[in-house]
Design a protein that fits this description.
The structure is a single chain. By secondary structure, the protein is mainly α. The chain has one domain. It is built from nine helices and no strands. Helix 2 runs antiparallel to helix 3 and helix 7 runs antiparallel to helix 8.
Length: 199
């Protein structure tokens, strides 16, 4: 792939002939595939809509991919079955268009900052660990509460920060994830005490 804007590369892939599966994305985007897959997998739970746990499978896959980063893999490995997961199509078109608009908006205000922090063995491991924390935070959010939004958004922002090599977006991602996890803890604790008081 060329080192052009992420949105342009992603849009070109979506518009190209051939399958739009996780396998084809990994083959085409190479080392960028980790961050791009995190964006695509966690972009749906990052929407401000209650998902009712329907996105748990995406969060599990994202966690497993993040473990590969921590283990030091340079290339994504997926089971053959997962490689056939469709990432595009009529049902996903609206989501993907919205995602591209979001990426373009970030690209307009972003610029490479502290590039030395990205792409190294240690930084990739830290990135993987943060994605796991965000994914678990989204996974354990009570269904239909929308509390999975902020942790998932944090992972999406961190992934885009890696693609754009911009430490400012890292800070935004960490802030979103931290706020979401704190909110889950506060609301979860209040709910637990409320239920305990009934008994």
């Amino acid at each position: 792939m060329n080192d052009g804007p992420v949105s342009t590369e992603l849009e070109s892939w979506l518009a190209s002939d051939g399958e739009k599966t996780t396998g084809s994305l990994v083959e085409l985007f190479g080392p960028k595939s980790f961050a791009l897959l995190f964006v695509l997998l966690l972009g749906l739970p990052a929407l401000p809509l209650p998902t009712g746990g329907a996105t748990h499978v995406f969060e599990i896959i994202a966690t497993l991919l993040a473990l590969e980063l921590i283990a030091g893999r340079d290339a994504v490995w997926l089971p053959r079955r997962w490689c056939r997961i469709e990432l595009a199509g009529p049902r996903k078109e609206k989501f993907l268009r919205g995602l591209l608009r979001f990426i373009r908006a970030l690209e307009r205000i972003s610029k490479p900052r502290a590039r030395f922090l990205f792409g190294g063995r240690l930084s990739n491991a830290v990135f993987g660990l943060l994605v796991i924390i965000c994914s678990v935070g989204a996974f354990v959010a009570p269904p239909f509460t929308g509390l999975d939004t902020l942790p998932a958004l944090g992972a999406v922002l961190l992934s885009l920060a890696v693609l754009l090599e911009d430490v400012v977006i890292v800070v935004l991602g960490l802030a979103a994830a931290t706020a979401g996890i704190i909110l889950e803890i506060v609301i979860g604790t209040a709910a637990y005490h409320g239920i305990s008081d009934l008994f």
